[in-house]
Design goal:
Helix content of chain A: 25-40%
Order of helices and strands of chain A: EEEHHEEEEH
Shape of chain A: elongated
Radius of gyration of chain A: 19 Å
Number of helices of chain A: 3
Shape of chain B: globular
Oligomer: heterodimer
Number of strands of chain B: 22
Strand order of the largest sheet of chain B: 16-15-22-18-19-20-21-17
Number of strands of chain A: 7
Distance between the termini of chain A: 53 Å
Strand content of chain B: 15-25%
Number of helices of chain B: 10
Largest sheet of chain A: 3 strands, antiparallel
Helix content of chain B: 10-25%
Largest sheet of chain B: 8 strands, mixed
Radius of gyration of chain B: 27 Å
Strand order of the largest sheet of chain A: 1-2-3
Structural class of chain A: alpha+beta
Structural class of chain B: alpha/beta
């Protein structure tokens, strides 16, 4: 596996997934909702799948180690990428979204055994709810 | 046979005439399975027919529900362009006590097509309907095999198995008798609603930014979604269309502050129930009033028309302690005996406060919130509590205490005047709507997980299909007086 994080810059093969990273301080790609809450937003294009995804901690750290000029070049490349852009002959412009942007239904069994089913607007929100598990279910109705 | 052939010819002629005249027809929804052999829709496990679902294998029953729900949507919507729903059963995130049930979304977004508002993102199924053509037709596939579908869905193939919400599988019957299972009909109906366009779509609510015209980034100058046209924030006094990213971000977490202003929804919003209110009566000028209240999961159930009694307050707690968290002092006991104690939220459980008030002789409790926002629901349990407990907002708690103070002079020297509480309903305010009767979108305090503007607020009554919590009492009717889903979709252009 060739591991990349910038314009041809090879980094340690210890990174779990081959990736090309893009840092954009003020702009996030649409399929980066999982990374949206992070203070420093880092998006990577997975070299295996070709899809954009949030950077792993290792990729994030590797990008931070880049000199400023390298980061600027990477950001420009990120802006030029149009994920799954479509153009209709009528002039209409479309994009294909990703699973990260799909609304998600989840269910948690509360302390009283009852199932609490809830829908979230994104995979990120749903996973946060799942991680909080029964705690979140209990706090659906506060007790104090 | 000849009669059937004639009927078919007649139908075709009518259909051609309708299409030729540019008239919409009932939508056609195609379910496109992507499951491999032996999995999901193709699971050959024998099962007994259940709740009106005649399938005899697990795969057949799953597809029967998909088709059943698709039929509901077909009858509700008009479109001359076939809607394609790609569906698969996959292993999704699970634990023994929690699970991702499934997900759905409009799989393609479009702007600047014929028939749509310029410079506005639309979900593909709606864009197709408005433009009269399948905008993705003929596009080269991107390798996924379903790049051009209108809605992509996936549901959890392992639900109910050990390690995946053990013992609570999807209930595949159509009769709502889901017992300890998960009602798949309602879950799918809800998720397809999102796929058809019941979503803010292209706005990242955590930043307020929108997807840019070329689809590459969330940006301050991105394009609005059609959903934003009818979002009006009562605090900011602005539509989302006229907000900055920062303003949209704030609006998304403005509890009970974001209303839907679309004409079809407003026409049907009268279906929402009158708001339950705590009615305070006092002889003091200006001290009477009506206040929305929340209910408790402990103590006796309360209902409209129920009298509570004279209101009383107790001493402020010592620093670091919560009001009502310990046994009442002699002075507080004297103050609340035979009355309804108003106690601030905080430090200890609601049930603890109610029990201490009960022990002091109170005949009811009103918990005043200690943070901004609506009157909270009161969780907790204590089977020994026999007095009613309700809650009010922080601001209304201040008003109740003012009413008590203002009422004192309006009595006699031996019997000071009081403010008296009772439970009633206010027909001028609708549960789940703002003061103007406009239904509210779900914009919870950020401390509550699941912040979203793509659902109705949970205060709506009766329960609506597109609230974030999928309630057990939902049906298949998508229009008033049962539901507001179809009116909202019509506002978007459906």
């Amino acid at each position: 596996m060739i591991t990349r994080i910038s314009l041809g810059l090879a980094i340690a093969a210890a990174l779990p997934l081959a990736a090309q990273a893009h840092e954009a301080a003020a702009a996030a790609t649409p399929d980066s909702t999982a990374a949206a809450a992070q203070e420093s937003l880092v998006i990577v294009r997975d070299a295996d799948t070709g899809k954009l995804r949030p950077a792993t901690a290792e990729e994030h750290a590797a990008l931070k180690a880049l000199p400023a000029s390298g980061k600027a070049r990477v950001a420009l490349r990120a802006m030029a990428i149009g994920p799954q852009l479509k153009r209709h002959s009528s002039g209409a412009v479309g994009i294909r979204v990703t699973d990260d942007m799909a609304s998600q239904s989840v269910v948690v069994r509360g302390a009283d055994g009852k199932l609490i089913e809830a829908c979230f607007a994104s995979k990120e929100e749903a996973e946060n709810f799942m991680k909080s598990g029964a705690t979140a279910a209990k706090t659906a109705l506060p007790t104090e | 046979m000849q009669k059937t052939f004639k009927k078919t010819l007649l139908r075709s002629a009518v259909l051609a005439a309708l299409c030729g005249a540019g008239l919409a027809q009932a939508a056609t929804i195609v379910i496109q399975s992507r499951d491999p052999a032996g999995v999901g829709f193709n699971d050959p496990t024998p099962v007994a027919p259940v709740g009106g679902n005649p399938g005899t294998t697990l795969g057949e029953q799953r597809m029967y529900v998909y088709r059943y729900v698709a039929d509901v949507w077909e009858k509700a919507l008009d479109s001359n362009v076939t809607i394609t729903v790609n569906a698969g059963w996959q292993a999704l995130t699970c634990t023994s006590s929690s699970a991702t049930l499934g997900s759905a979304s409009p799989w393609n977004l479009w702007h600047d097509f014929t028939g749509g508002d310029p410079g506005t993102w639309y979900p593909q199924a709606l864009a197709n309907k408005l433009s009269g053509v399948n905008l993705s037709e003929g596009m080269p596939d991107d390798g996924s095999g379903y790049a051009g579908v209108d809605i992509k869905t996936q549901f959890n193939v392992n639900l109910g198995q050990p390690g995946c919400l053990d013992g609570s599988p999807f209930y595949l019957g159509l009769d709502g008798n889901f017992g300890t299972g998960v009602n798949f009909v309602e879950t799918l109906l809800h998720e397809l609603g999102h796929g058809l366009g019941f979503t803010v779509l292209s706005v990242q609510t955590s930043t307020g930014k929108r997807i840019s015209a070329d689809g590459s980034v969330y940006a301050d100058d991105g394009l609005p979604s059609i959903w934003e046209r009818y979002m009006f924030d009562n605090t900011a006094g602005k539509s989302w269309l006229n907000m900055t990213s920062a303003e949209r971000k704030a609006s998304a977490i403005n509890p009970l502050g974001l209303a839907w202003t679309g004409p079809n929804v407003l026409a049907g919003a009268g279906m929402l129930a009158a708001t339950p209110v705590l009615k305070v009566a006092s002889s003091a000028p200006g001290a009477s009033g009506q206040y929305p209240y929340g209910t408790a999961s402990f103590g006796p159930a309360v209902s409209s028309g129920q009298g509570l009694g004279a209101l009383a307050t107790i001493a402020a707690p010592a620093a670091g302690q919560g009001q009502g968290c310990t046994a009442f002092s002699a002075a507080d006991t004297a103050a609340v005996s035979g009355k309804v104690a108003i106690i601030d939220r905080g430090v200890c459980g609601f049930a603890v406060k109610a029990k201490n008030a009960q022990n002091a002789g109170a005949i009811g409790v009103i918990i005043a919130n200690n943070v901004a926002g609506a009157a909270p629901g009161l969780g907790g349990s204590d089977p020994t509590i026999t007095i009613p407990t309700v809650s009010v907002s922080q601001a209304d708690g201040v008003k109740l205490r003012s009413a008590i103070t203002a009422s004192i002079p309006y009595g006699t020297r031996s019997k000071p005047g009081v403010a008296t509480g009772s439970l009633s309903s206010d027909p001028s305010r609708r549960a789940g709507a703002d003061a103007l009767g406009r239904p509210l979108l779900y914009t919870p305090n950020p401390l509550v997980p699941g912040s979203s503007v793509s659902h109705w607020d949970v205060s709506a009554s009766p329960n609506l299909l597109m609230e974030p919590n999928i309630s057990p009492d939902l049906g298949l009717v998508l229009v008033p007086p049962k539901d507001l889903t179809k009116p909202l979709l019509k506002d978007l252009g459906w």
